Each structure stands twice: as structure tokens, then as C-alpha cells.
Amino acid sequence: EESQQEHKQDIKLIIESDNIEDLRRYIFQLQTQLSHEQQERHELQEQLITEEEDDEEQVLMMEAIVEKIKNSLLTFQSEFLLQQNQQDLLQADECEEFQEEEEVLEQKQQKQRKEEEYNDGEEEEVLEQKQQKQRKEEEYNDGEEEEVLEQKQQ
Predict the structure, then answer these.
(1) Are the C-beta atoms of residues 39 and 47 closer than 8 Å to each other?
(2) Who wins on pLDDT, 130 or 5?
(3) H or E segment at 143?
(4) φ, ψ at 55 (rounded to 5°)
């Protein structure tokens, strides 16, 4: 607004002076100034458009980078889950092997206990038979002694 006021005053002074040549120069000067301002405005618009395009390009580049990061994270997550699954399978195999070993050990222990019980039973039978044989021998010997005593007494 200030420059408009100045222009109005300048034009008023030129008109009052009745100098058409000054008025023409002043109009030419204003046209030149307007042309320069239009040129600057056009350049600024082009610069703004270029900056917007650059901004769009940067946004697209950033989106591409974000997409690459997402893909990398998904790849890492997939590899991690795969490793975890492999570890789980290994642990399951180890656990299964351990259970099988424990079952085999338990079967061996049961077999050993049965054998011990059988052997204990056999030993008891043998001991019982020995004791019966010894009692029979003692009874027989007692019987013989009694006969010998009776014969002596007779």
C-alpha cells in the first residue's frame, strides 16, 4: 500500500507538471518494474513447483526406504521364527529321546526287580528245602538215636 501511495503521488506530480515525456518514462519504468516482478513471481512459482516435486520425490524415497526396512524386519522375523521352530523341534527330539531312554531304563529296572524277586523266591525255596532236609535228617537221626537207646536199654 505504501508503494501504491508513492506511485499515486508521483503520477499526480507528473500530471501537474504537464510533462508527457516524464509521464511516458514513468509508465515505462512502472511497466519494466512490473515485468521484473512478474518474472520474479514466475521464477518463484517454478522454484516452488520444483521444491514440491523434490519434496514428493523425497517422500517417495522415504516410503521406499520404509518399505525396505519393513521387508528386512519381516525377513528377520521369518528367519527368527524358523530358527525358533528348529530349536523347538530339536528340543522335542531330545525330549523324545530322553523319554525313550527313561522308558528303556525303567523296563531294565523292572526286569531287574523281577529277576531279584525270582532269585529271592528261588533262594527261599532252596533254603526251605535245605531246612526241610535238615529237619528230616535230624528227625531221622533222632529216630536212630532213640532206636539205639532202646536197643541198649533192652
Answers:
(1) no
(2) 130
(3) helix 20-153
(4) -60, -45
